[in-house]
Design brief:
5-stranded parallel sheet; about 40% helix
Length: about 575
């Protein structure tokens, strides 16, 4: 399998302003902060001690006050309100959040999640018809709606007002919704554009509770939902997202939601501190599984139920659906990989792969794995009859949404973000689309784009990782997009003792610097390097790594998690 050797991008040196050294932080911590853009006392203190009090006022969002007034009018008129959510974790959590909020302020409310395969992404005409047939006068979306012109026009004709809460990229023109709350609107100066869909819905819930006389506790009680949706949607964990995720993950550990507690129990996470990894790879996939394989309504039911038996049954159902999803994913990944390797793939700038047997609910996950394996932006398409539905993922530095925008005339519709997007096109246009997006990519990239890179935050010595530094580094959490786990580089190390292969393909060993500083290290997936690390060879080891605490046999020790390593002869 390809997986090219990464290029190490080492930091260049510069002087830390004297005013920052007065903060009393370790020099290495200051260097990390400065490189990440926190370059004055206020920014550093705000980053290290995030507070809910620093969240931006929801009224700064466009159409917010108009939306609040319309919902309160619906409550006064006893009108039925329909929450219309997307079928991924972000939309599921936003749906549960708004449903709970509207219930708290006394609204008549229900929810609707479209079927991924039968209706597709966004507000569907089927969903609008459902609203009309069941007497709903107001639709409030979460994580969708910004580009749903046709469905919103249909709702208007049927006498149904639509309030959109969304975070997807808008087109030049906006649909004629009653209100459209989106921090990415071109006509807004809201301070933070990168809220997840559930984050935008949280802002609406905040404004509603404030206007309706709700309590702060009512709002804080649902931060677990906000963290789930934000982290699972791979939103940048900076600014408001980082604050919401940090406090929300604390709330997940102590959640009062029966369904979420059941899911934590079945995954072995109940009572444990929750990390972005737990959300992204354990909780999120199970909440997503219903929408990918069948219907996402089950996940919403789980987050809303107050019945323990029902919660346990639904948790198990979603867990089984996730297992089925994993099997389907492995099959598609193997097929896609085989096709790529059968071609002269290194000449390609963009992969477009399609098949009539692929499951459209899983192709996005597989696209992510293909990108990781081959380092090419990738779109996988599931063909059914004359239509192809797909999902794409990108590489750092290449805007997938803009690439799709350049091919708009060939597509039926598309939407998404810089690094993830969905699309719909006719089967007969797949070849044309593949050529167009390949040409666009070739014009808008350089060979450097297709070299995997390891961005090193700082050069470090092993002695830098004392308790004071580790305590400060803990305050950098939660880690995620745009706030990644810090990566360090250390050169000229010795290997101490005998390396051991652990598990199937991992390598555990010790490294020493300056004849005295010794630290444990583990290199996942690098067992083949064991023969190069034999004790006594006159070599030096250069490593790029993150640091972590390893708990083993009741003891906690510092451990280096090796991302890449190079052995070079000592120069005598």
């Amino acid at each position: 399998m390809p997986n090219q050797e990464p290029v190490w991008i080492l930091p260049t040196g510069y002087e830390i302003p004297e005013s920052l050294t007065e903060l009393g932080l370790p020099r290495l911590a200051l260097e990390l902060l400065y490189r990440r853009g926190y370059q004055n006392r206020q920014a550093i203190e705000k980053f290290l001690t995030p507070s809910l009090a620093n969240l931006h006022n929801p009224k700064l969002l466009p159409d917010m006050e108009k939306a609040v007034a319309r919902i309160l009018l619906a409550r006064q008129r006893l009108e039925k309100i329909l929450i219309y959510g997307d079928y991924d974790v972000d939309g599921i959590c936003g749906t549960a959040l708004l449903f709970r909020t509207l219930k708290k302020i006394g609204c008549s409310v229900n929810y609707y999640i479209p079927h991924r395969i039968l209706e597709g992404y966004g507000i569907s005409e089927t969903g609008v018809k459902h609203a009309k047939d069941h007497g709903f006068k107001l639709i409030v979306t979460t994580d969708c709606g910004t580009t749903d012109f046709t469905a919103i026009e249909m709702a208007n004709r049927l006498g149904i007002d639509v309030i959109v809460t969304d975070h997807h990229e808008p087109k030049e023109k906006l649909p004629d919704a009653y209100a459209l709350i989106n921090p990415k609107r071109l006509d807004t100066d809201y301070p933070f554009r990168e809220l997840a869909g559930v984050g935008v819905s949280f802002k609406l819930a905040w404004a509603l509770l404030s206007a309706a006389g709700g309590s702060k506790e009512d709002l804080v009680s649902d931060l677990d939902l906000v963290a789930l949706g934000t982290v699972a949607d791979i939103a940048p964990l900076v600014d408001e997202n980082r604050t919401l995720a940090k406090f929300g993950m604390l709330k997940i550990k102590n959640t009062d939601k029966v369904g979420l507690r059941s899911l934590l129990k079945i995954t072995g996470l109940l009572g444990k501190p929750i990390t972005p990894y737990d959300i992204g790879f354990i909780l999120g996939p199970r909440l997503n599984a219903g929408g990918r394989i069948a219907q996402a309504t089950k996940a919403v039911e789980l987050l809303l139920t107050e019945d323990e038996q029902s919660a346990e049954a639904t948790s198990r159902e979603l867990d089984l659906a996730n297992q089925e999803r994993q099997k389907i994913e492995e099959t598609i990944f193997a097929q896609a990989t085989e096709r790529i390797l059968a071609t002269d793939w290194t000449r390609r700038k963009f992969f477009v792969l399609a098949d009539t047997t692929w499951h459209e609910g899983v192709v996005g996950i597989v696209a992510s794995r293909i990108v990781e394996q081959f380092y090419r932006p990738t779109i996988l398409l599931a063909i059914k009859d004359d239509i192809a539905k797909g999902s794409g993922r990108s590489i750092p530095g290449f805007d997938l949404y803009q690439a799709l925008k350049s091919c708009a005339k060939t597509l039926i519709r598309f939407g998404g973000h810089k690094y993830a997007a969905g699309l719909l096109l006719s089967r007969e246009k797949i070849g044309q689309f593949s050529v167009e997006i390949e040409e666009y990519t070739a014009k808008n990239t350089t060979p450097d784009h297709f070299l995997p890179k390891l961005f090193v935050d700082a050069r470090a010595n092993l002695k830098d990782f004392d308790e004071v530094f580790l305590k400060i580094l803990k305050q950098f959490e939660p880690f995620g997009p745009e706030n990644p786990v810090p990566i360090f580089a250390t050169t000229g190390l010795e290997v101490v003792g005998y390396p051991k292969v652990v598990g199937k393909e991992h390598l555990r060993f010790k490294v020493r610097q300056n004849k005295k500083d010794v630290v444990d290290a583990i290199a996942f997936g690098k067992s083949e390097a064991i023969l190069k690390l034999v004790k006594g060879q006159p070599d030096h080891l250069d490593i790029v790594y993150s640091i972590e605490r390893n708990n083993f046999a009741g003891k906690t020790k510092l451990q280096l998690n090796i991302k890449d390593m190079r052995i070079r002869p000592v120069q005598f």
